[in-house]
Amino acid sequence: MSWTLAGNQGSGMSFGIRLGQTQEQRQLMLPKMLQAIEILQLSTQALVARIEKELEENPVLEVEEPKVEKEPEELGAEDLPRDDLGGEGPRPGPGEEGPDLFGMIATRPETLQEHLMKQVGLLELDPLELETLTFLIGSLDPNGHLRMEEREVLSILGEGAPFQKALEILHSLDPAGIGREGPIEAMIAQIDPAWEDAALLRRLLEEELEELAKNRHPKVAARLGISLDTLQGLIETFRGLDPAPGRAFSRNEPPPIVPDVVVRLEDGAWQYYLDDARIPPLRLRPEYERLAKDLRTKGETRQFLRSRIQSARDLMRAVEQRQETLGRVVRAALDRQIPFLEKGKSFLRPMKMQEVAEAVGIHLSTVSRAIANKYVQTDWGLFPLRDLFDGGRTVGGGDRGGDSRISIKEKVKKIIAAEDPKNPLSDEAVVQALEKEGVHIARRTVAKYRSECNIPSRWRRKKH
User: Fold this and answer.
1) What end-to-end distance do the CA atoms of the chain give, in Å?
2) What is the number of other CB atoms lying within 10 angstroms of the CB of residue 212?
3) Which of 107, 186, 289, 361 could hold 177 in an S-S bridge, CB 3.0 to 4.6 Å?
């Protein structure tokens, strides 16, 4: 596998909608902007899968193979111009069938982001609302949960970003429960206030799940002040709620993590490589380009081909911009983390995305998107690119000035590792243990960090 040196010069990628644009212009930009944002945020593995789907869907797009010139005597019938693809041979006469271009399109399943942005396209939003909402949609995890807190979003988009308004809009979109903090919040959002037992069902989700998991139905019914039959009805309703409303749009289990960037010390200097080898080089099929330009091609077919050609060009440009932007961001970030590369993760220096954004000359939100879902292979292991910036974020500090996310995650892992497996700690108990170490964070933050460390919930950790 070959790798390309990161850090090429260029203008990078920029996303935004100008105030002077009309609503119609903004609506026309949405699909292209969404695709560029989606491509930038994809890991290399996910990008390859996305390209493969596009190759199935778009008949004018193909992988550019290395050119191998044949000797004249080796040319066969397969090398001659094809009559049905715009060559110089005879064209179909009246009543004869040409190529079934429309039938060549494969249907690509709709992604969660595409499903949501279709709905956004029908709304009247100002540029800041659209930018913020688009960012939130791009930040959803595969389950449809939004794990980013307001302060984190504002640190990326700026204090003027209408986070609460955008979040309110996101919560109003289909599927119900989208954009909530986690599975419990997603299910609560799906409760119709008009339901007769809506208040009881909410209490069941907020207060009694742990007891339900232990099958203590009589105790739960007594605490709620209801009969066992009523409780059973609540449980049936509860089972109809979806804790992961975005999961229906996930087609496959995620593949094993592989690095998007590899760092090597070569001749005394650190070199950063992007995994370009797995990204297939794309081109337009020349026969379809000829057909699109040929005035003898039927109007409907020409219009269709031009649309598909433009779509293919947009994809190729988005992939090109992704590589250029990712390379520049990686180089700027890692150049500022040489002690980490030399000595290990505990030597991550405080660094914020704004610092890299200013160095590269792009918007802070573009840096955030570029490092999303990407991993870097170093001498110290495989790490999310986002970890490079965690040293610049202090949380739960109190009088001590704060700890980085990474250090708090390590504390959470150590606390849980030392628990009694027959009586595992709740997230609230972990909060209390952290407070004894001078770290003050919310229960939901502990739950978030635990999830990011792939540590299951208390119920699933319990050993009988």
Assistant:
1) 47
2) 18
3) 186
CA distances from 233 to 89, 197, 221, 236, 319 (A): 72, 9, 11, 5, 51
CB 388 within 8 A of CB 333: yes
pLDDT, tens digit only, all 464 positions of the chain: 445 666 554 445 544 444 444 455 555 556 677 788 889 988 898 899 889 988 988 899 999 876 655 444 443 334 333 334 334 444 444 444 444 444 444 445 678 888 898 898 888 888 889 889 988 998 888 889 998 888 888 877 888 889 999 999 999 999 999 999 888 899 889 988 888 788 888 888 888 877 777 788 888 888 888 888 888 888 888 888 899 999 888 755 555 678 999 999 998 899 999 988 889 999 999 988 888 888 887 888 888 889 999 999 999 999 999 999 999 999 999 999 998 899 877 677 778 888 999 999 998 888 988 998 899 999 888 888 888 886 444 455 544 444 567 768 878 989 999 998 888 999 999 999 999 988 888 888 898 888 888 888 887 787 75
Burial of 412 (0-12, 13-18, 19+ CB in 10 A): buried
Does the domain formed by 394-461 have CATH 1.10.10.60? yes
d(CA 188, CA 368): 30
The answer to whether the pTM exceeds 0.85 is no
Give the residue ranges of DSSP H helices in 121-214: 127-138, 150-157, 163-172, 183-189, 198-207, 209-213
Structure tokens at 178: 């989208």
**CA distance linking residue 303 with residue 291, whole number of Å:** 11
In whole angstroms, give the CA distance from residue 288 to residue 84. 10
- How far is 7 from 294, CA to CA, in rounded Å? 41
Cα separation, 152 vs 154, in Å, equals 5
β-sheet with 269-274: strand ranges across: 4-5, 269-274, 261-266, 375-378, 381-384
Helix axes 364-371, 23-41, angle to 10 degrees: 40
